[in-house]
Write a structure and sequence with these properties.
By secondary structure, the protein is an alpha/beta fold. The protein has helices spanning about 25-35, 50-55, 60-80, 85-95, 105-110, 130-140, 155-165, 185-190, 195-200, 215-220, 220-230, 255-265, 270-275, 280-285, 335-340, 355-360, 370-385, 395-405, 410-415, 440-450, 460-475, 485-490, 495-500, 500-510, 525, 530-540, 565-575, 575-585, 585-590, and strands at about 15-20, 40, 120, 145-150, 210-215, 325, 345-350, 425-430, 455-460, 515-520. The strands form two sheets. It has a five-stranded parallel β-sheet, sandwiched between helices. Strands 7-8-6-9-10 form a five-stranded parallel β-sheet, sandwiched between helices. About 35% of the residues are buried. Mean pLDDT is about 85; it is low at about 290-305.
Length: about 600
């Protein structure tokens, strides 16, 4: 219920729109914003103006929606034994009489908002507008800001299916009953981020379009609302129902693991899109950490669980240091290398790829985000298990407790990451940021890890910088539209810092000889991945292993091609790097940098 009402207010447009996705927390966000004194909401949550104009199929259920909204308003006053104010009665009658869904009707919807308040329209269906619909939004609301909540594709679809079946009074009595409804096209349509997100990004930059991951509603609701406040220019507010569950689902059998597997395969393209367009921390927070799962009906056998990724972990854990380190550079194939080395039975790779221990200690500028990296990794691990439809093992939960339940970035914390390493295996830490440690940091690594071996991947300076630039701009939703935009963006000093081989490589070579430091060119990942792994095995003294997926690109760069002028500018800027590489490595090495 709105708290303020200006009966003489003039028609106006909304200034804040929460546009989706369905079953991704829009009702929760609506309730929080509704409690803020600088936000005004209509008596009914969803106005449905733009989708009524551009999704004709939605018109068939809109009379039901507004009847329900009016009835809910009446019931709220009845519960308080209060009479509905005449102004509110006239407003509801006006909003439900034809002609509806005209520009004048939409403006009247927000007329009662006091002038000092920002009117809010929360309608998840807006996220699914066709291109011409989003274009109309952009033209009609040139000053509005938009919030788009994104949830894990499978969990979102399951929540939507349960809601739909409950409304139709068709909730199944057994787990298998869900499987007959998985082909409902709405399940894919409402969560088609790969189609809808680019439409909105084409019209709105990050100053007007904020993406939020659903899982933070459970893990960090106050932090999420502080981010919303900053985006909207609101003062900090004390929200009374941050932990409220707005729509509790009807009682029903647990969703079957077989159905999750079907949906996971069906939405593979959505997961690929989200991984390519949002950073790891965002993706890790797409869903809330799993709670207790409902047991399967006793009349049915439990579905087979996925393999336990902790199988083979040591029964007796022993805190220890890593003995194999991958140190960079960023965007030079370290994620591919991690995926390959994690397969070798002679190595142990903890579930969190990048520990960031040494750069947290010696690169103060990293300390603003390294704790968030650890929290995001823990959420990602739990979300991965939830998507697979299984509980984390006791061993995994014990490891996660060590990861997040003690003071971070201490010696004990770092060594506990590798405690489950089975006897006879070598613990592995691949953190590309280590390559940029200052001399003091490299010296500390040398004394702290006196027996460790290091692998340093190097990529062509211009190609590496462009890949990093494209990644950074994609994450910030700021891919340039023209040549000038690319050239401006390339002034980011981080591009040079992450690929400063002339400064970093000598630091490592001064402390480690070729028996402990293996420097490899990035291009071998594509040209000769099996040969590259044989070289690494020989360097580490590991027996040969048959790897899978060596030809798979982990993070393929996407987006518009960069202009040749950008390459020319970067080539000139990085001339000292090319000169260093040419003088320190042979011609074959330099030829394989790309």
């Amino acid at each position: 219920m709105t708290r303020q009402w200006d009966a003489s207010g003039k028609p106006r447009k909304p200034r804040v729109l929460c546009i989706g996705a369905q079953k991704a927390g829009t009702s929760w966000l609506h309730e929080q914003l509704n409690s803020h004194p600088a936000i005004w909401t209509t008596p009914f949550k969803e106005v449905h103006y733009f989708n009524a104009r551009h999704r004709p199929g939605d018109r068939k259920w809109m009379p039901w929606h507004f009847r329900q909204a009016i009835r809910a308003t009446e019931l709220r006053f009845d519960a308080r034994k209060q009479q509905m104010p005449d102004d509110l009665v006239r407003y509801l009658l006006d909003m439900t009489q034809e002609p509806m869904f005209t520009p004048a009707w939409y403006r009247r919807a927000f007329a009662p908002a006091p002038r000092r308040c920002l009117p809010l329209d929360t309608t998840p269906e807006y996220s699914t507008l066709p291109p011409e619909g989003v274009a109309e939004v952009a033209a009609f609301l040139p000053r509005a800001r938009f919030i788009y909540l994104i949830r894990d594709p499978v969990s979102r679809a399951i929540s939507q299916l349960r809601m739909n079946l409950s409304r139709r009074r068709k909730l199944p009595r057994t787990q298998a009953g869900y499987l007959a409804h998985l082909d409902d096209p709405d399940l894919a349509d409402r969560g088609d981020y790969a189609t809808y997100v680019p439409r909105w990004r084409a019209h709105f930059g990050p100053d007007r379009l904020l993406f939020l991951p659903y899982g933070r509603i459970a893990t960090d609701p106050l932090g999420l609302m502080r981010e919303v406040e900053a985006f909207l220019g609101l003062s900090a507010h004390d929200y009374p129902r941050l932990r409220a569950q707005i729509h509790r689902g009807a009682s029903a059998p647990a969703f079957p693991d077989a159905g999750r597997e079907i949906l996971r395969a069906r939405f593979a393209a959505q997961y690929d899109f989200l991984a390519a367009n949002f950073d790891a921390e965002f993706n890790a927070a797409l869903d809330a950490p799993p709670g207790p799962r409902a047991a399967a009906p006793k009349t049915r056998a439990a579905a087979p669980s996925a393999p336990d990724e902790t199988a083979g972990w040591a029964q007796e854990w022993r805190a220890q240091k890593p003995s194999v380190i991958g140190i960079g550079a960023q965007k030079s194939g370290t994620t591919w290398l991690h995926g390959a080395l994690s397969q070798h039975p002679g190595l142990f790779s903890p579930p969190m790829k990048e520990a960031h221990y040494f750069d947290h200690l010696f690169c103060p500028e990293n300390r603003g985000w390294t704790p968030g990296h650890v929290a995001g990794a823990a959420r990602s691990i739990l979300a991965r298990h939830d998507r697979a439809g299984r509980e984390p093992s006791a061993a995994m939960m014990r490891w996660l407790d060590r990861l997040t339940g003690q003071e971070l970035f201490t010696d004990d914390w770092y060594q506990s990451l590798f405690a489950p390493a089975p006897p006879g295996t070598r613990p592995l830490d691949i953190t590309p940021a280590y390559s940029g440690l200052p001399p003091k940091g490299v010296n500390h690594v040398a004394s702290y890890l006196p027996e460790a071996q290091f692998i340093y991947l190097i990529r062509d300076p211009v190609d590496r910088a462009i890949s990093q630039l494209r990644m950074n701009l994609t994450r910030a939703n700021r891919l340039p539209a023209d040549e000038a935009g690319w050239l401006r963006a390339a002034n980011d000093k981080v591009l040079a810092a992450r690929g400063d081989y002339a400064s970093y490589v000598p630091r490592w070579q001064a402390r480690f000889g070729p028996d402990r430091l293996l420097i490899l060119p990035y291009g071998l990942i594509a040209a000769d991945p099996a040969g590259l792994m044989r070289r690494i095995e020989g360097f580490l003294g590991l027996p040969p292993h048959r790897y899978t997926g060596l030809d798979r690109r982990v993070f393929a760069a996407r987006g518009a091609e960069v202009p040749d002028s950008l390459r020319d500018v970067l080539a000139e800027r990085f001339a000292p790097q090319y000169a260093f590489l040419a003088s320190h490595f042979d011609a074959a090495f330099n030829a394989a940098l790309r």
